Amino acid sequence: MFDINNQDFTRLVSFVKENYGINLINKRQLITGRLSPVLSGMGYTNFTDYVDHILNNSEKEDIDLLLNRLTTNYTFFMREVNHFEYFMDTVLPWLEKTKKDKTLSIWSAGCSSGQEPYTLSMLMKEYFGSAFSNWDTRILATDISLQALSLAQKAVYSGESLESMPKDFKSKYFTKTSTPNQYQVVSEIRENVLFRTFNLMEPIQFKRRFDVIFCRNVMIYFDQTTKDNLCKRFFNATNQGGYLFIGHSENITSQNLPYEHVMPSTYRKP
Ligand SMILES: C[S@@+](CC[C@H](N)C(=O)[O-])C[C@H]1O[C@@H](n2cnc3c(N)ncnc32)[C@H](O)[C@@H]1O
């Protein structure tokens, strides 16, 4: 493993924080542990040359590799299940009643390997039943980790990872693959999710505003100012009455944000 000196550590941490929001100031070991194999693979013998390269040349594929290594992509189906219950019991009935054009606009921001948007897609299928195809329920799912997005698009998960879901979901929404103990999400649910690369530090300029934004367990790695700025951008990109779900361990200071706090880690634009 390579050592990193204070100067290179500070340069790298500032670069990642300024461009991607992720604050790694207390993660020296994570940086050296996860990036040392990258340095070796690229033929570098020290962090100074590698950091120079990242800061000066910024070749896209090298940045992608850096982000694949430095992001934490831990996720699972039905994570923080009360959000999904609220989504089913309160949010979808409201959308069904108010969306006359039958078009929903839902964003899983920081979707990692896809379990969150696929959970949402399955729940919408459960909710709308045979009317599912009459609604535009497509979910936008974004992340900065190309590795996580590639797993998400494959949509193949282990048998154990499906255990957190209601029992009948495995038979309804997954098919066995030729690899033992590996299951793929069925095409109807897969096709309902649109995966894209998107850095949450960038301006939010999508065609439509959102009815619901899930951005859970993403901002834990951001400092308060970065979080507050992102939440402002979420607010502006949300339709009236729309919701923002954040992770249970996260908080936003809604002082300057007119979000209504509807339950823990759930906010609504009045
Ligand atoms: C821990 S996962 C959360 C996955 C899912 N939302 C959940 O709650 O289980 C955090 C994800 O946020 C992504 N992320 C971190 N910073 C980001 C940024 N600036 N823009 C977009 N995605 C980011 C990471 O790549 C990672 O996949």
From TrEMBL:
Secretion signal, residue range per the UniProt entry = none
Q: Which UniProt keywords apply?
A: Methyltransferase, S-adenosyl-L-methionine, Transferase
Superkingdom as given in the UniProt entry: Bacteria
Q: Which reaction does it catalyse?
A: L-glutamyl-[protein] + S-adenosyl-L-methionine = [protein]-L-glutamate 5-O-methyl ester + S-adenosyl-L-homocysteine
Q: Does the keyword Heme apply?
A: no
Q: Which residues cross the membrane?
A: none
UniProt xrefs under Gene3D superfamilies: Chemotaxis receptor methyltransferase CheR, N-terminal domain, Vaccinia Virus protein VP39
* EC category name: transferase
Domain annotation CheR-type methyltransferase: ranges: 1-270
InterPro entries referenced in this protein's UniProt entry, alphabetically: Bact_Chemotaxis_MeTrfase, Chemotaxis_MeTrfase_CheR, CheR_C, CheR_MeTrfase, CheR_N, CheR_N_sf, SAM-dependent_MTases_sf
Documented EC number(s): 2.1.1.80
Protein name from the UniProt record: protein-glutamate O-methyltransferase
Q: Which organism is it from?
A: Aequitasia blattaphilus
